[in-house]
Design a protein that fits this description.
This protein is an alpha+beta fold. The chain has nine helices and 19 strands. A hairpin with a 2-residue loop joins strand 4 and strand 5.
Length: 380
């Protein structure tokens, strides 16, 4: 009897696993996988729950993996939902609930495909599922903890699919073969407070901040590459907290976010930001302090055997000729890429993180079929 990915998605949605709460989701999956013969181990770290599951011999040369997360973002204003956010209800062929798209449906699809595959046609190799409860949070103790656990235990994946939603509008239209890097910088400019009628007696940090932000935002980082759009910098905040028009404030804060392609690294862009800050200090006499956080480096899995394998399966099961893309935000693939070749493929992501998050049940069934075909073809 085949495993129903729609029912499994419903069961997972009914687990209130808002980051970092496990909510019963990983317990449910572990029970399902162990019944199918998977060796399951928890790789919890800090407040985060993680599940590692392997069918087959450890360290096998052919070991296909899936990565995903069961944690979800908060529901927001629950009264705004027309269906219970943790109800997993189906109406007119649409499944509603937090995580329906991002990404309990993806986890259910690859878990159901893996269970049926190893049960019906046991492969010569291993199937690995690495499922975290910390993708929507700070992502320090989630997939990174799973990869650390695997390294210590001698576990390997030869290739991996991350089951994040990847399709903008139509099921099957997009596979992610890379992601832009992401980093943020928080900037504090300190000048000298004074009366706005006597600006020569002050050193206005707002003028220095405005000049700095204009230079950062106006700078052309690059013109893109064969697989990536041009890198971009967005000014996301400038603030003084000053409500008085006759006072030049002593300090001003601001923030920028950079999404960058593989021409750059977080370190190279950090050096550029600090060089521009030093330049403003020299020109204006203010002091510029900067805190930088690199959320993830840009990466690319070049088109080849793995993306070809996934693309063939997608077209066979959906009838859609897929495109290879690096658009969008970050995902846990940015960690997996240091372990093995990785691509992402999943559902249409139109409603993720929204009120009344939902997915057509047909898409979940299609996704399981795609993952099942990938497994069959990989081990053929």
């Amino acid at each position: 009897m085949s495993t129903d990915p729609v029912k499994l998605t419903q069961d997972l949605i009914r687990c209130p696993s808002v980051t970092p709460e496990e909510g019963g989701a990983l317990v449910l999956l572990q029970e399902l996988l162990e019944r199918a013969g998977f060796d399951c181990q928890r790789a919890d770290r800090g407040e985060v729950s993680n599940l590692f599951a392997r069918w087959g011999d450890k360290g096998h040369a052919r070991s296909f993996g899936f990565n995903g997360h069961t944690d979800v973002v908060p529901v927001g204003e629950e009264a705004a939902w027309t269906r219970p956010p943790f109800g997993g209800e189906i109406h007119d062929g649409i499944l509603y609930g937090r995580g329906a798209t991002d990404m309990k449906s993806g986890v259910a699809a690859f878990a159901a495909a893996a269970v049926d595959f190893v049960t019906e046609t046991p492969p010569d190799g291993a199937v690995v599922l690495a499922i975290t409860g910390d993708e929507e949070g700070v992502s320090i103790d989630g997939t990174l903890a799973l990869l650390d656990f695997m390294a210590e235990a001698g576990e390997r994946m030869s290739a991996c699919i991350v089951g994040e939603p990847t399709c903008p509008e139509k099921m099957g239209e997009m596979i992610k073969i890379g992601r832009r890097g992401s980093m943020s910088a928080w900037i504090t400019v300190v000048g000298k407070q004074g009366h706005s009628a006597y600006p020569h007696r002050a050193n206005n940090p707002l003028h220095a901040m405005a000049r700095l932000m204009d230079r950062l935002a106006s700078h052309e980082l690059d013109r893109g590459t064969d697989h990536f759009d041009p890198s971009s910098l967005a000014v996301v905040n400038i603030d003084t907290g000053n409500s008085a028009t006759n006072v030049i404030p002593a300090r001003c804060t601001g923030a920028v976010n950079i999404r960058f392609n593989d021409i750059h690294t977080g370190a190279s862009l950090s050096d550029w930001l600090r060089a521009e800050a030093d330049r403003i200090e020299a020109e204006t006499g203010v002091t510029v302090e900067m805190e930088i956080k690199i959320s993830g480096e840009a990466f690319l899995t070049p088109p080849g055997p793995l993306s070809d394998l996934v693309a063939r399966a997608v077209e066979a099961e959906t009838g859609v000729t897929t495109v290879l893309s690096t658009t969008g935000g970050t995902s846990d693939a940015r960690f997996v890429k240091d372990h093995c070749p990785v691509v992402e493929f999943g559902l249409v992501g139109e409603t993720m993180h929204q009120v009344d998050e939902c997915v057509p049940v047909e898409q979940i069934t299609q996704l399981k079929a795609v993952y099942a075909r990938i497994l069959r073809d990989y081990f053929a």
